[in-house]
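In response to reviewer comment 3 from the previous cycle, which asked for concrete evidence that the modeling workflow produces usable outputs, we include below a single protein chain processed end to end. The sequence was submitted unchanged, and the resulting C-alpha cells are shown without manual editing.
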Amino acid sequence: MRHVRKAVLSAKSASSANAVPMLELNMTPLIDVMLVLIIMLIVTIPKANHSVGMDMPRPGGAAESIAQNLEVDFDGTLWWNGAQLANRSALEEKLASLKGDDSIHLRANGLAPYKVVAGVLSSARRLGVRNIAMVGNERFQ
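The workflow returned the following C-alpha cells.
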C-alpha cells in the first residue's frame, strides 16, 4: 500500500511540475457584463418620437372655407382673387380680414422678385395666416 501511495503522490507532483498556464479566457463573466451594459443602454435611451405635428380638421359640420387666390406678377404686382391690390398695406388688410381656417393659394410668377414673395409670406405669418399653399411650382422643377 505504501508503494501505491508514493506512486500517486509522485504522479501528482510530476504533473504539477509540467503544468502549463491556462491561456484561455473565461468568457462567461465577460458575456454577463456585456448583457448588463446592453440592457442599461436600452433602458436609458429615450424612445424616438416619430410623430409629425399636424393641425387636423375638427369635426362639427363647419362650412368649407374657400381658398383665396393671391398672385405675384413678374413686376411684383399683387393680385387678390383677380383684382389688383394698390400696395402692400392693402394686402395686409385683406390678410387681416381672413378667418383662422381660411387658406391662401399663392401663385408667384417665375420672374417675380424674391423679396416681394418673401414679404408676402412674412406678412401672412405675422398676421396669423396658417394655411398657405404655393400653387404652380411644379412647372419650375
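Residues 120 and 130 are 13 Å apart (CA to CA). We consider this sufficient to address the reviewer's concern, and the full set will be provided in the supplementary archive.
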